Amino acid sequence: MRGRSQAPQRSVSCAATAPPRLRLAPPPPPAMSLRFSANVSWLFPELRALPARLEAAAAAGFGAAEAAWPAGCPAEELRAAAERAGVRIVLLNTPPGDQEAGEMGLAAVPGRQAAFRQGLATAVQYAKAVGCPRIHLMAGRVPLGTDRAAVAGEMETTFIENLRYAAGLLAQEDMIGLVEPINNRITDPRYYLNTPQQGKADISPQSLLEGRRRDLFHCQIMDGNLTSPIPSLGHIQIAQVPGRHEPDSPGELNFPYIFELLESLGYTGYVGCEYAPKGDTMEGLGWLRTYWESRGLQHGGTNKAAE
């Protein structure tokens, strides 16, 4: 945020018996900086275990982390690792379902309502154990052997019913449920929820969910128009298009502009780093260090003036 310009000085009569009082312009308010979270399901692939990735995220300056469904890592172990590292877990996914059968979420899959509710209950208990306030309700894929158009109505009905159920359960736990469109041009051709417009229509007002999750990688591929209203979003994720690598890698998106836009719109949620590092994760975080330096912040986003 730029400092305020001082008002032009007024002329003072030499006949004045007392010197004028000098009025100083107030200091500019501190610039609002974005909060970044490390998606440890994507970042630090050079480390195998999630606890080790949390420690690496903390060393890189992240104060928050997120993950897909952390299969194989007990909640107590992840919480202990997060506490040791001083990192807060801010987002988890619901379980994907039967991945061997090709499932990737269940919220919109007809005939899998009971499995979705069971998975949601498991996700809620896990999130409570690690202190995570947000859960991504994965919509799932169009079933194999079916035509998307033929099952669209049934999937929409299933999705809305499951979101209503989830909204009630999450409200009791003081948690936030999020949905995310995933592009079907590059990433997942069969994913049900694939455009921002579809996500907006499905969650409001029928389900009463509190927010949407927008991955700018998927939105750029499917829709563009990334400057649509942002403050209502519950979570944002970033990756360069089309390679899905670091924000400063060659691609379609101008992330310095996007960061300034988010700041100007007053976005206060987290910006999740969900990308595939081109090499060593730590070496590829130069874009984040540059962001902090350009805002006058120290490593980790700490305000220098506050210390």
UniProtKB/TrEMBL annotation:
Active-site residues (renumbered): 180 (proton donor/acceptor), 274 (proton donor/acceptor)
- Which residue stretches does the UniProt record annotate as biased composition, category Polar residues? 1-14
Low complexity composition-biased segments = 15-24
Q: Name one Pfam family in it.
A: AP_endonuc_2
> Which reaction is catalysed here?
3-hydroxypyruvate = 2-hydroxy-3-oxopropanoate
In its keyword annotation, does this UniProt entry include Transmembrane? Answer: no
InterPro entries xrefs: HyI-like, Sugar_Epim/Isomerase, Xyl_isomerase-like_sf, Xyl_isomerase-like_TIM-brl
- List every stretch annotated Disordered: 1-26
Q: Name the keywords, alphabetized.
A: Isomerase
Which molecular-function annotations from GO does this UniProt entry contain?
Answer: hydroxypyruvate isomerase activity
What region holds the Xylose isomerase-like TIM barrel domain?
Answer: 54-290
Any Gene Ontology biological process: glyoxylate metabolic process
Per the UniProt entry, the Enzyme Commission number(s) are: 5.3.1.22
Q: What class of enzyme is it?
A: isomerase
Q: Could you tell me what this protein does?
A: Catalyzes the reversible isomerization between hydroxypyruvate and 2-hydroxy-3-oxopropanoate (also termed tartronate semialdehyde).
Q: Which family does it belong to?
A: Belongs to the hyi family.
| Name the record gives this protein | Putative hydroxypyruvate isomerase
Lineage of the organism: Eukaryota, Metazoa, Chordata, Craniata, Vertebrata
